[in-house]
Amino acid sequence: MSKQFDVVVIGAGPGGYIGAIRAAQLGFNVACIDDSQNDKGGPAPGGTCTNVGCIPSKALLQSSEHYEHALHHFGDHGISVGEVKMDVAKMVARKAAVVKQNNDGILYLFKKNKVSFFHGRGSFAKAVDGGYEITVTGAANETLTAKHVIIATGSSARALPGVPFDEEKILSNDGALRIPTAPKSLGVIGSGVIGLEMGSVWRRLGADVTILEAMPGFLGAADEAVAKEALKAFTKQGLKFQFGVKVGEIKSGKKGVSIAYTDAKGAEQTLEVEKLIVSIGRVPHTAGLNPEAVGLKLDERGCIVVDGDCKTNLPNVWAVGDVVRGPMLAHKAEEEGVAVAERIAGQHGHVDFGLVPWVIYTSPEIAWVGRTEQQLKADGVAYKAGQFPFLANGRARALGDTTGFVKFIADAKTDEILGVHIVGPYASELIAEACVAMAFKASAEDIARICHAHPSLSESTKEAALAVDKRTLNF
């Protein structure tokens, strides 16, 4: 007997569970299907973000940063400690506990909002009168009928051709989060978010980390000034980088992994490491969805084809998050999930990709929103820029972390803020002010005229806004 719902959401990652909750808030009878499971086989909603991405990586970053501070920086504060040791197993166990808290929190939110949760794999069976039949394959098989379907199945790590992940020596983000002991040597292919964050974790714990990047430069999506400052900091910490490389044969053996590559000068090189993290991007995850059963259209990259409102080619079928176009970011997925639920209710859900912030949670942190200088130059937009270093910020000095700066870019004529770029302490938190300002079409002068608490890191935001008009007060 099929169970009837107004909205069925396939996938309980950030886009899926948030979309399901918002739809339920709007008065719909909602079901959410997800097949992720914990070590005991129980449900583990939250998607890649909660289980093997954003949340666990931040837990490891926090633990490893505490360890590094104890080793190298406590003395600056007058704190003396004995021999500092890292229990990697305990660190990983804490990470798992943090993940479980988030899994349980989502299940609680489903109950609170009366969302029916089904633990299993959701797939299209057929189109039926007034909607779609969805099969749930799991511990208990179910058949659901939905008027509307929201697909939020996320993405999977992209493997190198012919080099599958074994999650023992050749690792995706999943395996990189579960390394049982700190390796002596670690290779990373790809200098994006995952590569930098995981490379930083294991470098702090003693690994000799080498990052191989195919692109000729570092962090091409970031503002050039930010990328330059970040690379200088990471190199000083001990991360090793090779840019413009072409990766060749990769061999995995008893002692580790051998990576043959051609460097930027055309010379043949070999890197020998205990473990290798491959972080070369992600691919949309549609395995098991059975799109053929209903004629759901996918593009050449495997993304579900949607319009600007996240509508697919099928009536009342929507898709959000990593499985569609746009940045593969958890917060982008959440915004799309909310917008789709509101559109189903006849409201006007809205997502502005230009206001989606980007964050890399390394030390220093990197965050930005809006356009970079190089993008504005390429588009022929007249702009003015201002920059303020954390070295001149009292709170940063008190923290003992003065690396980096805040940079504002504004329209040369109107002074409207076009982009804000931060590298330094708590950049992930500071960027929110820029998002709010840009959402309200604020000018650099608006931020410059707002009273910021003293002493605070946010004063650097105000000072960078002042710098656009070349009138900083503390630098």
UniProtKB/TrEMBL annotation:
Binds 1 FAD per subunit. Residues 5-337 form the FAD/NAD(P)-binding domain. Gene3D superfamilies: 3.30.390.30, FAD/NAD(P)-binding domain. GO terms for molecular function: dihydrolipoyl dehydrogenase (NADH) activity. Pfam families: Pyr_redox_2 (PF07992), Pyr_redox_dim (PF02852). It is found in: Cytoplasm. Its EC number is 1.8.1.4. Its cofactor is FAD. NCBIfam families: lipoamide_DH. The active site is a redox-active disulfide bond. This is Dihydrolipoyl dehydrogenase. It comes from Pseudaquabacterium inlustre. The lineage of its organism: Bacteria, Pseudomonadati, Pseudomonadota, Betaproteobacteria, Burkholderiales. The gene is lpdA.
